[in-house]
Amino acid sequence: MLMLLALAFGIRCQAGGDFKMTIIPGRPEKYTGYQNLTLADNDCVQYCLYEPTCAVVYMKDGYSDCIVFSASQIQKVLQVGDFEGQRVAMKMKQTYTCGDEFEKNSMFGSETTNTSYIEYEIFIGSDSLWTFTITKSLKCPSNYKLFTRAKGLWCIGLVTVTGGVTGDNSGLSCASAASGAILSGLESMYETEYIYGKGCLF
Ligand SMILES: *[C@@H]1O[C@H](CO)[C@@H](O)[C@H](O)[C@H]1NC(C)=O
Ligand SMILES: *[C@@H]1O[C@H](CO)[C@@H](O)[C@H](O)[C@H]1NC(C)=O
C-alpha cells in the first residue's frame, strides 16, 4: 500500500490533440542518445507534445536545457522524490482524464513521421523504473510516404509511365514497384495534394 501511494505521488499531465504528457519527478536512467535544446520548462513539455519524434523530455529546476528523447532512444526513467527538482515528461496516448495514478494513464504512445510508425508501451517495475518497450515498428519503402487512413496505415508511392496505360497494366506496374504494392485510389485531400505535388516534380 505504501508503495502504491509513493508511485502515485506527483503525477501531472498536459494534454493536446491525440496525446498528453505525463509528468513525474524523475530522471532518465538508461538511453542511447538524446537531443539538447534550450527551452524553459513548460515550452519543453509543449515541444514534445507536438513533435512527432519526441517521446520523453527531461528538465531540471534553474536550467533551460530541454533534453529530448525519441522512443528508440529512451529505455528507462527513474522516478525520484519530488524535492529533487528534476522532472521527466512522457508522451502517451490521450485518455479522458489525467490519471493521478499511473494505472489511469494509457501507458502507451506512438511516433508517426512521414515515412515511419513506432508504437511503445511503458511498464513500471517495483524498483520505480519506468521501462519503455517498442511494440511495433513500421517503415515505408524509400520514396513512399506514410498516410493514416480510416482503416490503418498506408504507404503511398508513385509509378510513372510514358503515354497511356490501361487499368490492368497500372495494377501490374504497381505490383512490380515494391513488394506487396497494389494499385489504389485516393482517400483524402492530403493524399491528392501529395500526388499532384509529386507529379509536378517529374
Ligand atoms: C545541454 O547543453 C547545455 C548548454 O550547451 C550544457 O550546459 C548541458 O550540459 C547540456 N546537457 C546535456 C545533458 O548534454
Ligand atoms: C512531411 O511531409 C510534409 C507534407 O508533405 C512536409 O511539409 C514536411 O516537411 C515533411 N517532413 C519531413 C521531416 O520530411
Automatic annotation (TrEMBL):
Every PAN-3 domain range: 1-132
Keyword Signal attached: yes
PANTHER family: C-TYPE LECTIN-RELATED, PAN-3 DOMAIN-CONTAINING PROTEIN
Signal peptide limits: 1-15
Stored InterPro entries: PAN-3_domain
Coiled-coil blocks: none
Signal found in the keyword field: yes
Name under which the protein is recorded: PAN-3 domain-containing protein
Keywords, in A-Z order: Signal
